[in-house]
Amino acid sequence: MKATEPRPVPHPRGVSSEAPERIADAVPPPGGRGRIVAVGVVMAAVVMDMLDASVVNVALPTLRADLHAGSAMLQWLLAGYTLAFAVLLTAGGRLGDVLGYRRVFLVGTGVFTVLSVACALAPNAELLVAARIGQGAAAALMVPQATALLQIMYAPHERARVMGLLSPIAGLSAALGPLVGGAILHADLFGTGWRPIFLMNLPVGVAVLVAAYRLLPSGRSAGAPRFDPRGTVYAVVGFGLLVLPLVQGPALHWPAWTVVCLVVSPIPLTLFVRDQRVRAGRGEATLVEPSLFRRRSFAGGLAVSLVVEAVLGGLMLVATFALQDGLGLSALAAGLATLPMIVGMVVGAAVLADPLIPRVGRHVVTIGGATVAAGTLALLWPFRHYGADCPVWAPMPGLFVAGVGLGMLMGPLFAITLQDVDTAHAGTASGTLEAVEQLGGALGVVTIGAVFLHHTTAGDSLGTAFGWGAGAILIVLALALALVPLLPRRFRTEDELGPE
């Protein structure tokens, strides 16, 4: 396949141009079949990550029996992956800026695939947990490059549509995890029990590696920015102290160490911010380019994304608990019941948001938020009316409407946050955005989930508990909509992204 001529990418005002631009040297022809296949490769890696993160949930009882795993080990099977992924996302994104997006994507995908095999062959719970933590770290290398590569392959005015598909595809993959896991466990292929849920990554990973090597742009330039080890340590320690208690606290009922971690976490994070500003002022290497935060689209997008992801995390937790604990559905049946939400996300992002963006600009986020609110209220009615006897079909219309709203929120947000980021900082920006989204999801589980679970454990009826959970969702959603004015009024075209 013949590569197109590299096209200079202008540095937007407010974003440092000291780091050389990264120009794709093997970009598939714009609009051609090669680019479509390349996007499919990137999406396949995202699907592999999200599917692997959720497929383990349904296998926990089998893992407990087969590996004689205690409760702490089972918690770390889930939390270890999430923690490593969230903490290392920013560093993983920066490595793409430094070493090249395709190269880091290939390394992350390769390590992820190898560790998937290690998970499948693990003889005990300890080695399985270690391999899962390694998988999370590898995913932190792989996933930010996926977004960065999309920025390279698509011009700014084209990105909203393709990036708008990332969230629903990731959501669909997460929802399919319990379904796929349940089907594999039920099949018990060759008497191997739970092990094929990890082995299924092997053919997918190998296919992604081969196709990525042949089709994806390298994003390489003559002079690459340098890595910042000290900033990485500050960020990993600070973000780890913040995320670890958010992940483990609810399950462990907030022991003292989780509170201490939360209280101490601002110290390394403050040192990180100060260090990055000083190093940038001296012209030295930074982990995160401070001038990115002077871009209204990036800073405002991060703020809104944090709260929107909290809404998504809280809504998914409340809906899942209501379906499983409230209605007594299995994980498999609950996963099927939430599919209307995922379908709605695809409709909202790909069908509704895309034509609205040029007409209403940032107000598409407001429309999406109002639609989520309508879906949440539509969900509330059957649980209040039927209680624990609610038929399975009754919540589905509300889930679909909420999904449409989430698609209209998340797709445009992803694109507008990254629209003014030049390709020299695509990895850093993508990793930072995805780290913020992980933090937002954890905050949603802790806040909205805590309200809902408090009322379920207090003996309230399903309708009452869901009413409190829905109220918490609407309050957080109102906060997200209050932050919408932080976003630029409209998406800018490719020509407008030049020097101002």
UniProtKB/TrEMBL annotation:
Q: What parts of the sequence cross the membrane?
A: 36-60, 72-92, 104-123, 129-150, 162-185, 197-216, 231-248, 254-273, 298-323, 329-352, 364-383, 395-418, 439-459, 465-487
Which residue stretches belong to region Disordered?
A: 1-27
Topology relative to the lipid bilayer, per the entry, is: Multi-pass membrane protein
CDD domains named among the record's database cross-references = MFS_MMR_MDR_like
Please state every residue range assigned to the domain named Major facilitator superfamily (MFS) profile. Answer: 38-496
Keywords in alphabetical order: Antibiotic resistance, Membrane, Transmembrane, Transmembrane helix
Q: What is this protein called?
A: Putative actinorhodin transporter
User: Which coarse location class describes where this protein primarily resides?
Assistant: membrane
Localisation: Cell membrane
Gene Ontology BP annotations: response to antibiotic
- Pfam name, any one: MFS_1
Species in which this protein is naturally found: Embleya hyalina
Organism's domain of life? Bacteria
State if Cell inner membrane is listed as a keyword. Answer: no
Query: Which molecular function terms from Gene Ontology are attached?
Result: transmembrane transporter activity
Q: Name one GO cellular component term.
A: plasma membrane
Lineage of the organism: Bacteria, Bacillati, Actinomycetota, Actinomycetes, Kitasatosporales
